[in-house]
Every structure is written in structure tokens, then in C-alpha cells.
């Protein structure tokens, strides 16, 4: 089993990693039922472990030629200071994700070896997905030009009728009959120009249009 902080492989195998998972449980009180719990979603995973950064190779180290302790320390403290996540990997398990450094404690032991002991607590990091909002467009460029509609004549047009001329009919009399006003006889004359050449003369049997 190997352990990595980003691309830095830890020289000494970690003996114990504490993993904590959980969920938010909201409680409410119901009449006649008492207190009940409601699932509110998963909490972020947390990890904690302790080990040390050796200053030189020893038989228990997993590989030789590893960086000095300050390289690991600077990397972790830089991520914490800049509020950037680090990736912690523990091969052989499903632990391979990004974490934020919650706390980092180090101890310099006066043993002449230069090793640095540490305790590291990590909290799972999740990116916040912010939906993109389309930029507002100039209303003047997108607004459709308004057109003024002419008011439509809602009055139903009167349908024309016809009249067969009989003896004694006159245009004045027909206007009086159909319009209630004999002085409008020229409306009938104009509508029948193909026949009526003289408004004072109409012939029996003519079929006149009464507009």
C-alpha cells in the first residue's frame, strides 16, 4: 500500500488512517408522534492520520531517494495558506480524492536524525457548481419594433340586396324604402351605372343593386 499527497509519495507507510463519514439528520417534533429524524444529505468525509517525514533512508522506508521533510511540509502548508485542495491517495482503497487541510501539526524531535513527526487532518473538498447566467442584452437591440395596427372595422358590412323595378318605381322612392331617406337615391344610381344613365328614368324589369 502506497500513500501520496498530490505527486509526493510518503516515504514511511502510515500505520492508521481514521476515516469519518456521516449525514445531516434534521429533527422535528410532530404532534402525537414526538421527535422524528429527517435525512438532510451526506456530510463531507474527513481523514486524519499521523506519521513522520524521515530525513534519511532507513529499512522501513518504502523507497529511497525521497525528498527532505521540508519539501513535504512546505507543500502542505502552502496548500493550507492558499486555501487550495490537495489530493490524498491510498492505494488499494477507494481513497483517491481532493481534500482541504483542516489542521497540520508538526513536531521536530531533538534526536539528531532530523525527522519531523506530524499529524494531518483533512476534509473532503467539493467544487461548487455555479450555473452560468447569460449576459443581459441591450433591450433596445432585442426589442421588436412595435407597429401600430389600424383599427379594424368591426361593424359587419351590410350585404347588398337587389330590387326588380316595377311600374311606378323611382330611385327616390327606392332610397326612401331601403335607407329611409330619399335623398340618398344617387347611391343606388352609382351602384348601377351600367343601366342607369339618367337617375330620373328607370325601366320596369331592371334588376338594381341596392348597396
From TrEMBL:
Pfam families: LysM
Residue ranges, annotated region (Disordered): 136-161
InterPro entries with a match to the protein in the record: Bact_Kbp, LysM, LysM_dom_sf
UniProt cross-references to Gene3D superfamilies, sorted A to Z: LysM domain
Biased composition (Low complexity): 137-149
Protein name as annotated: LysM domain protein
Every LysM domain range: 161-210
Source superkingdom: Bacteria
Amino acid at each position: 500500500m502506497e500513500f501520496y499527497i498530490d505527486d509526493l509519495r510518503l516515504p514511511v507507510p502510515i500505520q492508521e488512517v481514521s476515516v469519518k463519514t456521516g449525514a445531516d439528520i434534521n429533527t422535528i417534533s410532530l404532534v402525537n408522534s414526538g421527535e422524528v429524524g429527517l435525512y438532510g444529505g451526506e456530510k463531507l468525509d474527513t481523514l486524519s492520520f499521523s506519521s513522520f517525514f524521515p530525513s534519511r533512508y532507513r529499512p522501513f522506508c518504502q523507497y529511497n531517494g525521497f525528498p527532505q521533510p521540508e519539501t513535504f511540509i512546505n507543500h502542505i502548508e502552502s496548500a493550507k495558506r492558499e486555501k487550495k485542495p490537495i489530493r490524498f491517495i491510498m492505494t488499494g482503497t477507494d481513497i483517491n480524492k481532493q481534500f482541504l487541510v483542516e489542521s497540520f501539526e508538526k513536531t521536530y524531535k531533538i534526536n539528531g536524525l532530523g525527522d519531523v513527526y506530524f499529524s494531518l487532518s483533512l476534509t473532503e473538498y467539493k467544487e461548487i457548481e455555479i450555473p452560468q447566467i447569460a449576459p443581459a442584452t441591450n433591450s433596445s437591440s432585442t426589442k421588436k419594433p412595435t407597429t401600430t395596427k389600424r383599427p379594424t372595422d368591426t361593424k359587419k358590412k351590410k350585404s347588398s340586396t337587389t330590387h326588380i323595378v316595377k311600374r311606378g318605381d323611382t330611385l327616390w322612392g327606392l332610397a326612401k324604402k331601403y335607407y329611409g331617406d330619399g335623398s340618398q337615391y344617387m347611391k343606388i344610381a352609382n351602384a348601377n351605372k351600367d343601366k342607369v344613365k339618367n337617375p330620373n328614368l328607370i325601366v320596369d324589369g331592371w334588376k338594381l343593386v341596392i348597396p
